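Contributing new records

If you add data, match the layout below exactly. Sequence lines come first and carry their own label; structure lines follow with theirs. Keep one chain per record. Anything else will be rejected by the validation script.
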Amino acid sequence: MPDRPFCIFVVDDDALLRLVITDQLQGQNYQIHEFSNGEECLAAMDLAPNLILLDIEMPGLSGIEVCRRIRADGNDDVQVMFVSAHDDLEILLTAFDAGGNDFIPKNAKKDVLLRKVDLAIEAEQQKRQLQSQLSYAQQTAFTAMSSLGETGTVLQFLRTSFQCVTFQHLGSLLIETLQQYGLNGLVKLTDTVNEYDFSPEKICTPLEESILTYVAKLGRIYQAGDRLVFNFSHVTLLVTGLDTDDPDAIGRLRDHLAILAEGASARVEAMISEQQRLQEANARLEGVKELTDLLMEIEANQQANQAQMVNLAEQHKMNMESAFIHLGLTDSQEFLLHGYVDELTTQMDNLFENDNKLALRLNQIVEKQKSLLLSSQVSR
């Protein structure tokens, strides 16, 4: 039952019948109002009746017309129970088409009337329960849709953050994501050496930098009024502009923003690792370049030494042949010395051939190192 008494209108041009019905309803904590015609009933609708016991045949407006006007005015919650001595099918169909809820014959016994009223009360209670359940379901659905939208924003941030390769890009993305929630905030990102501060105005003021430094010392999640602070490794997030009149929304945002901060922290960790790997790769490339330069220098020196050795051998052979003329050697002696020179030349040629094989392998290694260095420079 509602807080106020159940309000019943008794509408009938027969005063005696109104008296009988009113007497039967006494003692039930009902609020009863009597009307002798339809016009009076319509004029009193501001009393917000719960049930109208409405005679069909009355001078002036009939009960059917009164019911139509009640429904036309938007009074859908009030129940209309027609009271008539006629119960043929045509009248019943017309009554229900007009918007009636129930029917009771005139001069019905008291227990029948009270049972009908009890049914009307139960119907109203069920309707209110359904309306309450519907309202709750709508609110739940709205909350779920809001949460889905907020979750979608988080997922979009996480997807986009994977593409961030600089701290500037990641910090700007965090600020933009906060604005999608209708919030403002400040962001601090740190690597192993540097700090990067961000605000909606792109560049933080000295005061904002001081605030970020202070809140970075607070707990993992800290709330004060319309402000929330999140501290994860490498990330400090200060959020402002929360609606303190909506604690449920703040609870959802706290969860979503914590995921944002943790996701940003994971991305910073990945960026730091990528920078370290890049530095190590650059160091290895520098080592390869130094080795390649050394191999090229060795190859050049070897080629120069080989050419010099060939020239020295030829010059030595020519000097010996020239000396044979002045030494007055016999043919056998000259032949013997020529044999020594030819054998030495042959041995040097064999050494040069082995050196050429080594030089060819060295040249192949040098060319391969050049190609690796070139491809590394292009990829960077």
